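ok so I'm stuck.
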Amino acid sequence: MLMLLTRVRLRTQGQYDFSTGNRNLPAFLQAAKDAGLWVTLRIGPYVCAEWNYGGLPVWLRDEPDMAFRTYNPAWMRAMKTFVDVVMKVVEPYLAKYARLSRSVFLL
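replied:
not stuck anymore, here's the structure
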């Protein structure tokens, strides 16, 4: 299982990084596909208690009207944006396009 920590991909507000160094998600997904492996992708936004703020970017706490992990408009907007960006990156690798090759299963 691969967990996408929001804080690693979104260190600065509005600047997503899915292409440099160990953040290169398409390269990882392609390598897994080429090796015939499935990837279980957990996109969060909150992924684990081992990280401060569950892997969320620290700057997010200072956003106006922000309340983490609730049905809160500021939270819902921020997380919808993150999920939408992730889906654009992983869409070509989704299992619905797998046919005979391995691909991504979202969790």
